[in-house]
Amino acid sequence: MLGILALILLVLLLVIGGDRGAISVMALAGNIILLSLTIVLMAAGFPPLLITFLASIAISYVTLVSQNGRNVKTGAAFLAAGLVMLVLFFIIYTVVWSSESGGLNEIQAMQEDVMYYFNVDIHINMLHIAVCMTLLSTLGAVLDTALSVTSSVYEVGIHKQSLSRKELFYSGMQIGKEIIGTTINTLLFAYLGESILLFAYLKIGKFTIETIINSKFLFQDVAVMLFGGIACLLVVPAASVCIAESIHMRR
């Protein structure tokens, strides 16, 4: 079934997307290879944070430049996403370290497969893994939002050459306001869709509200969603500044 679904996706990308769809397929395959390599290197004992840093740069390059070419739009989006992710890294690290939310959560730890069949002593810093997982989960939404803003402002700047840097910045902010609502909703429903079975399990198990609110499994999932929303909000002004400056310098 996975093969059939993947084939349907591939056919639709090629039929509807045409040449750009083919480029998207290659970029998708490249990102899958990069993520797989990241996991392999982490399992081999390489520093997770360093591997994630290098993987994020490579994934950003493949997602932005390989699909859309090297131009003002992708350059500004790449810079804006990099700045936001760098700032967010310190926030994520502090929150994850303070909450000690790395490793298996309560639901995973209770599973018999984990307790009896798998070795959980894997000699990897699970707090670092939690930071890496949050960063990589946030990266996709940040890149999408950044490119949406820079592409739109670039088109505005091309058709209205008289706009100043300040006016271009405000154009980017206005565009960000239009798209940020749907982006936040996408992150929310992605989390809710993945967690329906978990919530049903909690209801059947009669977990109390206090237990759920203070649980690690809720924090791990909700934190990723919230960090994604925060990153998308931060990247809007960052992308607006970067593209406004890039267009001004190009003129």
Cα-atom radius of gyration: 20 Å
Main beta-sheet annotation: none
Total helices: the number is 9
Output mean pLDDT.
82
Helix content: over 70%
Structural class: mainly alpha
Strand content: under 5%
3D shape: globular
Distance between the termini: 52 Å
Give the oligomer, counting copies of the same chain as homo and different chains as hetero: single chain
Query: Could you give the count of β-strands?
Result: 0
Query: Uncertain runs with pLDDT below 50, 5 residues or more?
Result: none
Q: What series of H and E elements makes up the topology? A: HHHHHHHHH
The gist of it:
The protein has 251 residues and is mostly helical. It contains 9 helices and no strands.
Overview features:
251 residues, mainly alpha, 9 helices
